[in-house]
Specification:
The structure holds two protein chains of two kinds. Chain A is of the alpha/beta class. Chain A contains 24 helices and twelve strands. In chain A, a hairpin with a 2-residue loop joins strand 1 and strand 2. In chain A, helix 4 packs across helix 12, helix 12 runs parallel beside helix 15 and helix 19 crosses helix 20. The longest helix of chain A is centred in the middle third of the chain and has 27 residues. Helix content of chain B is 74%, strand content 3%. A two-stranded antiparallel sheet of chain B has the order 1-2. The longest helix of chain B has 30 residues. The chains are: A alpha/beta, B mainly alpha. Chains A and B meet through helix 5, helix 6, helix 12 and helix 14 of A and helix 4, helix 9 and helix 11 of B.
Chain lengths: 581, 290
Amino acid sequence: MSGRLTRWLARDINAPVFVLALVLALWTVSSGDPYGLRLMTLAGIYALATIGYQFVFGHAGALSLAQGCFFGIGAYVAGMLALNPGVGVETTLPAATLAATVLAALVALPVLRLHSHYFALATLGIGQAVLLLAVNWVSVTGGANGIAGVPSASLLGIPLGRGWPMLLLVWTLVAAAALAARRLTGGWAGPALTLMREQPQAAEAAGIDIGRLRLGGFLLSAGFAGLAGALQLHTIRVVSPEVLEFPVMVSVLTIAVVGGRTSVAGAILGAVLLVHLPEWFRPLQEYYLLAYGVALMLCVAIAPSGLAGAALSLRRRLWTEPSPPLPAPMPVPVAAAPACLEVHGLTRHFGGVAAVDGIDLVVTPGEALGIVGANGSGKSTLLNLIAGAERPDAGSIAWGGRRVHRLSPDRIARAGIARTFQAIKLADGLSALDNVAAGDWRGRDLTRARGAATALLARLGIADIAWQPCGELPPGIRRHVEIARALIARPSLLLLDEPAAGLGAAERETLGSLLMDLHGDGMTLIVVEHDLDFLRRVAGRLVCLSGGRIVADGTPDTVVRHPAVVASWLGSPGAAGGADG
Amino acid sequence: MELLQLAINGIALGAAYALVALGFVLTLKATGAVNFAQGDLVTAGGFLAVALAGLLPVPGILLLPIVVLAMAGIGLAVATLSWWPLRDRPPATMFISTIALGIVIQNGLNGVFGAEPRAAPPLFTGGHVEVFGAVVARQSLAILAVAAILIAGVHLLLGRTQLGRMLRATAQDRAVASALGIRTGAMVMLTFALAAALSGAAGLLLANRYFIAPTDGGGFIVKAYIAVVIGGWGRVGGALAGAMLVALFETIVAAWFDQAVATGLLYAALLAILAVRPRGLFGEATGRRA
């Protein structure tokens, strides 16, 4: 046990966090005056709301401005219930949590598909609407005066006094929330969430259902906020529309940014700091919000990962931990479910231009198909349509007899079609190993996923860089990492968009051998590429696109001699599509 | 005749909202990010007019140039604090930073002027005139005229001048504009100045009939956002039309029920629009942005 504790303390910033927590606890016990206890209780309440907020803001990467609204809903629901005699926290807390979660579920449909600032402003609209309701629905909410005279809280009939009992209840829940957050965002979910934040398209292509994760984050954040709001009601025993106004939201946002967007310790530290700030700077009086604003602005500019992030990078700068040993490799089998890809009349317009114009194509299981064509001939669009990143305007795509052209990219990925991107999409902050492990949507177990990732990186000859952050890797290696991520999903069809671009001769050689190995294992390949020599080596069949149509189809040797191909390649007079050479 | 009166009031309010929405869209296009403090710049402009009126007892129209110039300067300060240091970061970063700035403005105003709503002087004189039998506040007509002149001015600036072409090029594609030798950093700063000047003018226009309080900024930014949702993303004309619809809706529903119902229904309408048409009511396909 003590060995485990020592190891835990040695990791990251656990030791200073542990010491700080002890100091805070001792400080609270020793001061012990009612006002001090109340402040620590409120700090716990804000920590709880922020731990919840981190699910949507930190982990899912969506700037929600509805957290204050969910907090207020929790306070109101708890207040209305607690006015009835005999109703204890065993009822009010779950009811408040549920009410906030239900509201979040109701508004999720319109707002969750929005991105970045559009999502933020829509969630702000929700908050404003609920505030209006609270002020004007006087018979239920008490209007501008709110609900006062809420009796002292009780748990299963046992009265909970102010001071210690409330403080212990709140901080017990904070501890439970911290453990829940660890369970929900630790392990495989960690790299998967990071990939989703930094490269949403890559995450979808790796089989990760972004919509579900975002919804989950949003609902969890609302539930935690509702719970925190209810606890605040029981602590201060009044609720008024103030609880729904922007300052609550700003406080939670400031705590999350100042403390750290994904760190539970950061949320707690931030909450304790920000709740005490007005007390420590009494001359600020009403201007404490102004101080929050300045702190928030400075923090965003100077320490974007917050106090927790700053401490972590300081720790890493002071003494570098040796890279952990590579996990034991776990070989990744090639999926043995060969299926036929049938494309019929596929069409996709951008504005008035048909990027893909009525393509018919059948790729049989185990085939290695190369696609050539000038820039703008529709190669990448065709790949994007097959992978679900674009929806066709007309035509169909069937995969193993099942129509897939209306499916989302993550569902297509889970059906066994993996892809790489023309512009490499990796999460730069994650190690190569975790970038690959994030694609293991089947196992969802970090140890196993890392084992499989190790085996794949070794197969590609780059196991030595496994622990390096992807942002530091050269382009050639990054391509290989992306291919490894595609392979960890055990696809039966692999789509590669210009895999040899930017690679040196030796790297092309290795990549070619790898693709031939995969082909030998029975995997179907579709390779978009400009390098004809490379394609001649790996592809058994070539298709040439021009102006969104197939102009030649056959063995590599016949296709490269086809007049239309020569024309589109060399740009002879009257050639369609005008080649770039 | 009551309906005509409401319509004129609504259009006047819409003209002021249109100034805010215009600033919102211009900044959005130039930086790819939202200046959340835009709403607070409206209140700042309103309170600046209130303060100036205390020093110079002249009609609002004479204060307007001072407010516009001062707000342009404040816009440059906003850009320096909240855009320039964060220009290479994800758009949400500037959003958060401008939320922070908005809080500073809000609480600064609250500290100096107090929380009570205040009124700025009318543009010309108070009172009413009769238009086709409807009794209309002179201020409403003045708001309409001034906002129309300002919008026309921005239109000419963007459409007819070399500076405008450079501003538009920067908004369209910063990398290409930069390669053409345009100082894109300066252009974005100028866009902030222009947006702040428009917001400040809106503040002066609104602060007479509708009063202004330090915490009003959030409402303005949400209304600008709704206008843009209605009008379709990134379309200047759409945003102006959206602002008109928002204001007409608010004015007419408020006359039927009350202000709170009007605003509540407006937000409900926003969510309904987003649920059915996430790309905006009249929006073209702009993909993931919505």
